[in-house]
Every structure is written in structure tokens, then in C-alpha cells.
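> forwarded from #structure-qc
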């Protein structure tokens, strides 16, 4: 009876090994992971294999299945390896909110490089990129964007926000869509495309934007937006608020501002640039305190929440008046 069990176990083991060989034979070559990661994976696989071979005969079938699962998982992990480093990065991730996968399937984290050509789909998250040509590009949730170069993107759906930050090389940043293309002239602007509604609108917070559709070109300045629809013959211009609900999402992924060693005045200038609000002082005393107070520590919050936290450390308060922020003494 025991000989029969051993014979049956041997037959099952042989069948399992043949099944493994069949699976591995069908596996396609993959990009290799980094050397240290590959070594860690190899050790884990061999450790599991050794453990499997030391188990009793009646458990070996489960052991081979576990080893197969590890090896197949290794193959899948390698399949999601980053793209070749031969492609230069046109942007790097500066901030990320939520879980967003890169073109190769790996989660994007702060510092991740992005090459031209891949579709960036944000899903429920949103992301801020530092462009190789300078400036900040932010991509809203439920958006699809193709980075076509260091100073150009194609917007397939959703919304992007661009801030030149006065640090550009001089080349205009371009956004192309099926309904028209636009370029900035030293500006902050938001472009929003709804393919299902056949509508594109571009709002300008600072500077100027030119939007071209066919033979027509429209220009928008601060506090204006341009609207294009599939059934309209011309580009429409309207007024738009430079702060508030339309811009809130972009503020949440604004570049960090390290307050340590900076004055309140420095922080308020950053706040104004990130929110589109005009900061004014209610008195000369309030301005003197702002310019003379040096901050310390670290606070990483969205701009409006950060304003409350920073001023709580000082003798200053603020009041929101539409698109103005009035700074007063306590």
C-alpha cells in the first residue's frame, strides 16, 4: 500500500514538473529588473524551492503549485519593468495625490521620470509634474494626457493646469486637442476638454493664451477664458474668476514651499501665485510684521490651509474677500 502511494506521488510530481516546463517554455523574454532586485527575487525563489523539496510526499503537489506561483509572479513583475533609460525624461513627478500608474504599469512616485509618448491616465488621482523645459504641469483626476515633448502635451480628456513660473527657456508651452491647440505666453492657464460634450475651454489666471482652431485664433488674458464646441463656428470669449472652484484641484498639488528660514512675506508671495488671489495688507504694521518675521519648521498643506497654519504662528490674521486676501494684525 505504501509503495503504491509513493508511486502515485512520483507520478503526480512528474506531471507537475512537466506542467511547469510547459508554462516556462511559453514565457516570452522580459526586461530584466535592477541587479539588486533580481538577486533578491532569485534568493526568494530558491528558498521556496528548497522548502518545497523538503516537505513530505503527500504535500509536494501543493509545494510545486506555490513555487510555480512565485515564478509566474516574478515573470509578471519583470513585465511591468520601467521603459528603457535610452529615452530621455521630459518630466518628473513632483507631487502625486492617489495611486497613478505610469506607462509601464509601475506606480508613479515623487521623482519618477516620464518619457515622451506614453499616455498618462490619472483615474481617481491627480499629479503635478516638473517639466524638463521648466514650469509646472498638473493633471486633474479622470484625465488622459500624452507628453509629446518637454514643452508640449496632447490632452485627450480631462484637465491640465500649466504654470510657467517665469523659469522657462523661452519656448511656448503647447497643448493640443481635437478641438484646437493653444500656447502660453508666460502664463498660468487651465485647459479642460470634455470629448463626450465636444467642448474645450481655456481659462487664464496670469499672462496670455492663444487658441487656434483651423484658420481662427483667439486670445485670452487674465480673467478670461476661451470656449470651443464642435458645433460652433467661432471661438467664444468669456470672463472667468482667477480663484475658486475651477482652480481648487490644481492648488492641492501645488509645488512644495519650504517655510524654514523664509519670511512670511515670501510665503504670501508663493500663496498668491498658487491661488490667483491678490494679497493686500490692512495696515503698514501688518506688512512690516510679514516682511520681518522669519519662519521655521515644516508645514505641507494645500495653500489655503497652509495660510491658516502659517499665520497661526505669527501676530497676523487674514480675511478672504472674494479674490482678495487681506492681512491684518491681531
Amino acid at each position: 500500500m505504501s509503495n503504491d502511494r509513493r508511486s502515485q506521488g512520483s507520478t503526480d510530481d512528474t506531471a507537475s514538473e512537466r506542467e511547469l516546463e510547459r508554462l516556462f517554455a511559453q514565457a516570452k523574454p522580459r526586461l530584466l529588473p535592477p541587479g539588486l532586485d533580481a538577486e533578491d527575487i532569485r534568493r526568494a525563489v530558491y528558498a521556496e524551492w528548497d522548502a518545497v523539496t523538503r516537505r513530505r510526499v503527500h504535500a509536494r503537489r501543493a509545494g510545486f503549485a506555490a513555487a510555480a506561483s512565485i515564478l509566474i509572479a516574478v515573470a509578471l513583475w519583470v513585465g511591468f519593468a520601467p521603459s528603457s533609460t535610452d529615452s530621455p525624461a521630459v518630466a518628473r513627478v513632483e507631487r502625486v495625490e492617489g495611486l497613478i500608474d505610469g506607462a509601464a504599469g509601475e506606480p508613479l512616485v515623487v521623482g519618477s521620470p516620464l518619457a515622451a509618448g506614453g499616455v498618462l491616465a490619472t483615474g481617481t488621482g491627480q499629479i503635478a509634474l516638473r517639466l524638463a523645459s521648466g514650469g509646472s504641469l498638473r493633471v486633474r483626476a479622470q484625465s488622459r494626457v500624452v507628453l509629446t515633448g518637454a514643452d508640449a502635451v496632447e490632452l485627450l480628456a480631462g484637465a491640465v493646469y500649466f504654470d510657467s513660473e517665469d523659469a522657462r527657456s523661452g519656448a511656448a508651452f503647447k497643448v493640443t486637442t481635437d478641438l484646437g491647440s493653444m500656447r502660453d505666453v508666460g502664463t498660468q492657464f487651465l485647459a479642460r476638454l470634455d470629448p463626450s460634450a465636444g467642448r474645450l475651454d481655456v481659462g487664464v489666471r496670469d499672462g496670455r493664451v492663444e487658441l487656434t482652431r483651423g484658420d481662427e485664433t483667439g486670445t485670452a488674458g487674465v480673467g478670461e477664458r476661451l470656449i470651443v464646441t464642435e458645433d460652433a463656428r467661432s471661438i467664444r470669449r468669456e470672463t472667468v474668476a482667477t480663484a475658486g472652484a475651477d482652480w481648487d484641484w490644481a492648488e492641492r498639488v501645488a509645488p512644495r514651499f519650504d517655510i524654514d528660514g523664509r519670511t512670511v512675506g515670501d510665503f504670501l508671495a508663493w500663496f498668491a501665485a498658487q491661488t490667483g488671489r491678490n494679497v493686500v495688507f490692512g495696515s503698514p504694521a501688518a506688512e512690516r510684521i510679514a516682511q520681518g518675521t522669519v519662519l521655521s519648521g515644516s508645514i505641507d498643506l494645500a495653500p489655503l490651509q497652509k495660510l491658516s497654519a502659517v499665520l497661526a504662528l505669527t501676530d497676523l490674521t487674514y480675511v478672504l474677500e472674494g479674490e482678495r486676501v487681506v492681512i491684518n494684525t491681531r
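QC bot note: The chain has a mean pLDDT of 80. The chain has three domains: 2-79, 89-247, 256-329.
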